[in-house]
Amino acid sequence: MPHSFGLRARTRHMFSRNFREHGAIPLSTYLKIYKVGDIVDIKANAAIQKGMPHKFYHGRTGVIFNVTKSSVGVIVHKKVGNRYMEKRVNLRVEHVKHSKCRQEFLDRVKSNAQKKKEAKEAKVPFNLKRIPAQPREARHVSAKFNVPQTIAPVAYETLL
Questions:
Q1: C-alpha angle 152-157-160 in degrees, rounded to nearest 5
Q2: What pLDDT was estimated at residue 12?
Q3: HSE of 41, CA atoms in CB hemisphere, 13 A
Q4: Could you give the angle at the alpha carbon of 102 between the alpha carbons of 93 and 16, nearest 5°?
Q5: Bridge pairing between strands 71-80 and 61-67
Q6: How many other C-beta atoms are found inside a 10 Å radius of the C-beta of residue 119?
Q7: Residues 61, 57, 13, 46: what is their CA dihedral angle, to the nearest 10 degrees?
Q8: H-helix or E-strand containing 91?
Q9: Closest to 16 (Cα-Cα) out of 58, 57, 72, 51
Q10: Cα torsion through 99, 101, 102, 106, rounded to 10
């Protein structure tokens, strides 16, 4: 049986709506404000065929370069051969959402500013760098009331 190479070929699950998210699109989708420079995730909504991205861009993250009445222009980097090409894609707002990839960084900037302010008021040195998980501290195990037990493997038994 021959398979097709159409624009939406092999997108049966990719473009399907999520469980209990079928039906009318919430108004909050249209009320979100997008600005040039915002980082957005591209997620195609199959209920709206206008301004829909090609299946390659589904799940990609890009930067907004243009904003119009009902759509946004997004710059996405696409790997072609041995280089990355900057692709400019125009999508309707139903197919994009603000990315949370920078949220942790922005939260850290805010908390670091607060910590820095408190440390300056208390006049104590401060370190704002992230520190990787350190090894656990050493422990001393006493065998006084804890007699070591010898463990032996259980012999294999067949049930047949």
A1: 175
A2: 92
A3: 9
A4: 40
A5: antiparallel
A6: 14
A7: 100
A8: strand 83-92
A9: 58
A10: 100
State pLDDT tens for residues 23-70: 999 999 999 999 999 999 999 999 999 999 999 999 999 999 999 999
Do 65 and 74 touch, CB atoms closer than 8 A?
Answer: yes
* Cα dihedral 52, 56, 62, 64 sign: negative
Residue-wise pLDDT tens digits, 39-51: 999 999 999 999 9
Tell me how far the alpha carbon of residue 97 is from its chain's centroid: 12
Summarize pLDDT for 81-109 with one digit per residue, the tens. Answer: 999 999 999 999 999 999 999 999 999 99
Torsion angles phi and psi, residue 91, rounded to 5: -130, 150
* C-alpha gyration radius of the chain: 27
Structure tokens at 4: 């097709």
**pLDDT bucket at 147, cuts 50 / 70 / 90:** confident
β-pair partners for 87? 76
Do 155 and 143 contact (CB within 8 A), yes or no? Answer: no
Q: What is the DSSP string of 20-67?
A: T--SSPPTHHHH----TT-EEEE---TT--TTPPPGGGTT-EEEEEEE
**Residue 61 is encoded by which pair of tokens?**
């993250």
